[in-house]
Amino acid sequence: MFHDAYQYLEARTGLTAVGALSINPEVAPGARHLSELRETIGELDAVCVFAEPQFPAATVRVVTEGTSARTAVLDPLGSHIAPGPDQYPAMMRDMAATILECLEG
């Protein structure tokens, strides 16, 4: 995950996150952190690494380089979903579908 904001979703669905690319969205992750995360992704044979449209995609490429992990983009802002009373449920369904698609390959 790009950051540690999906704890409830992980607990509800049984997903296991192996780390967060960024601890603080205001501060770019350091080289050591990214290197350690790439090593963890490789060692644990992580299946997917999720980016978000508002954060640099290059960071995800750095941590997945040399691993078999797939990447996908989760949009927790629902930027492509029409505003209205159904926006939040539609956004959650969209993110769930993205996660499932990435996990299934």
Fold and architecture overview:
The protein has 105 residues and is mainly α. The chain is built from 4 helices and 2 strands, in the order ααβαβα. Strands 1-2 form a two-stranded parallel sheet. It is globular. The model has no long low-confidence stretch (mean pLDDT 88).
Highlighted features:
single chain; 105 residues; mainly alpha; Rossmann fold; two-stranded parallel sheet; 4 helices; globular
Explain the layout of strands and helices:
Layout: H1 7-13, H2 31-43, E1 48-51, H3 57-64, E2 70-73, H4 87-104
Helix pairs in contact: 2-3
- What integer value in Å does the Rg equal? 14 Å
Instruction: Give the DSSP E fraction (strand runs of 2 or more residues).
Output: 5-15%
Q: Look at the structure and give the CATH class.
A: Alpha Beta
| CATH H-level homologous superfamily name | Nitrogenase molybdenum iron protein domain
Query: How many helix segments?
Result: 4
Number of strands: 2
Q: What is the number of independent domains?
A: 1
Helix content: 40-55%
Structural class: mainly alpha
Order of the strands making up the biggest sheet: 1-2
What is the 3D form? globular
Question: What is the CATH architecture descriptor?
Answer: 3-Layer(aba) Sandwich
**Helix and strand succession?**
HHEHEH
End-to-end CA span: 17 Å
